[in-house]
TrEMBL record, chains A, B:
GO biological process terms, semicolon-separated: methylation; protein histidyl modification to diphthamide
Catalytic activity: 2-[(3S)-amino-3-carboxypropyl]-L-histidyl-[translation elongation factor 2] + 4 S-adenosyl-L-methionine = diphthine methyl ester-[translation elongation factor 2] + 4 S-adenosyl-L-homocysteine + 3 H(+)
Database matches in InterPro entries: 4pyrrol_Mease, 4pyrrol_Methylase_sf, 4pyrrole_Mease_sub1, 4pyrrole_Mease_sub2, Dphthn_synthase
Top-level taxon of origin: Eukaryota
UniProtKB keywords: Methyltransferase, S-adenosyl-L-methionine, Transferase
Role summary: S-adenosyl-L-methionine-dependent methyltransferase that catalyzes four methylations of the modified target histidine residue in translation elongation factor 2 (EF-2), to form an intermediate called diphthine methyl ester. The four successive methylation reactions represent the second step of diphthamide biosynthesis.
Protein name: diphthine methyl ester synthase
């Protein structure tokens, strides 16, 4: 059996009891290591599981799945995914390749940021489409997600923004030289997300657009390390969100739509300052 | 500390390792027993945890929270919730009451149907607003959720439909007589959900409405016991969904919007018949 096992969001102990039992009896254990991270690394997981964990980068998952599947028709192989295997990142592609080879698979679900975001007090069923915000470069500043935020806000719905992760990226120089030297990983902070979003509305304003999705004074929510002991949630204006310090990655970002009174009361628990408390 | 602990969706072993450790050291352990169920009951949980579990019905959670909180300023008390504590059912109300009393709380997240539904192959970020479908009676047939399905479909988005659960309900007769006799629990099946939805579009058709959200031939998805060993997923037309047998509760229901090629390929894995395979 080929198992997709969600690890949840915090540390090694956020795996389920069922997931842990399967890991312990698997012949090989892979860890998907390019779309998300826990607050602990591979070594801590190996120590907790009492066995070797093989890091699976994008290249391995996308082009060497045969190697990963090997032997899973007669023995157990585990593929570990931070969060849930069908959460923010989905591994349907790998499922389809397994089925093509007539391999059985099973999924051990876990918390994902897609549902754990409910801890900020906003109701999950009031969220509209989820968006991803990518790192801008000097020459590439995509803003197509703005229209989705606008649409959600117009419908009174909240928007979960997943923030970019760059792992095993090469500099253009090294890429051109064909050197397999990788840049240090980068994880987008809520500061960068707020900055990029404010830059978009400033541009829209300059272009004369009147009905903006939000302003610098709109309350938004920054979340860090959800599910871990050091989890931090803060509700602040976009202006304040550009400079707040909520610590190490991973960060996520929420732009609320219409707020139910209970949702407002919850947000006040995470208020950055009196602007939010009087909200 | 007052802990909100998600149990996930399958059986006793879907709790996280961290959650289990907290349950074992808690002074009292409550199980929220009115918004969802696992495939196993309280007794199996007690056996697995090696300790007593107190069933908390709606009345206890909504009116006797002081009793539940008692002692949690100096000791640990656990409140277990099927799925995630902030998933399909949210317990923000209880969080706010704890904070009013200056009690600390912590959340141990887990899978919820709100993210585990991704196992049917539809991408979570393409889901629009989640809706709830309630049991109709002879005289009460609410259909306000239809407009939300329509809106999601018009935007090309999928709709997760949470299906009604009736636990500890009194018959009108017993209610009027003041007798605390409760009806057996009822869990809506995908058959009933499909029937009610088809009745709505038939009514709309009779009223001359042309631009319907879906027809009897639209493909929809029925899910049963997600996360358990007997998990069943089926993709079929609304007509077929009225009669398919996917077994015991809990069921959930999905109405897809626009489908990405990968999503189509995944749905074919769960095809009820050739209508869906050729989809």
């Amino acid at each position: 059996m080929f198992y997709f096992i969600g690890l949840g969001l915090g540390d090694a102990k956020d795996i389920t009891v069922k997931g842990l039992e399967i890991v312990k009896k698997s012949k090989r254990v892979y860890l998907e290591a390019y779309t998300s991270i826990l607050t602990v690394g591979k070594e801590k997981l190996e120590e907790f599981y009492g066995r070797e964990v093989i890091l699976a980068d994008r290249d391995m998952v996308e082009t060497q799945s045969d190697e990963m599947f090997e032997g899973s028709d007669t023995e157990d192989v585990s593929f570990l995914v931070v969060g849930d295997p069908f959460g923010a990142t989905t591994h349907t592609d790998l499922v389809l390749r397994a089925k093509e080879k007539d391999l059985e698979y099973r999924v051990i679900h876990n918390a994902s940021i897609m549902n754990a975001v409910g801890c900020c007090g906003l109701q999950l069923y009031n969220f509209g489409e989820t968006i991803s915000i990518v790192f801008w470069t000097d020459t590439w500043k995509p803003d197509s997600f703005y229209d989705k935020i606008k649409r959600n806000r117009d419908l009174g719905m909240h928007t979960l923004c997943l923030l970019d992760i760059k792992v095993k990226e090469q500099s253009i120089e090294n890429l051109m030289k064909g050197k397999k030297i990788f840049e240090p990983p980068r994880y987008m902070s809520v500061n960068t997300a707020a900055e990029q979003l404010v830059e978009i509305i400033q541009r829209k304003k300059e272009e004369g657009e009147k009905d903006l999705a939000f302003t610098e004074d709109t309350i938004c929510i920054g979340l860090a390390r959800i599910g871990s002991e050091t989890q931090t949630i803060i509700a602040a204006t976009f202006t304040d969100m550009m400079t707040v310090d909520i610590g190490a990655p991973l960060h996520s970002f929420v732009i609320p739509g219409e707020l139910h009174p209970l949702e407002k009361d919850m947000l006040k628990l995470f208020a950055y300052n009196d602007d939010v408390k009087q909200y």
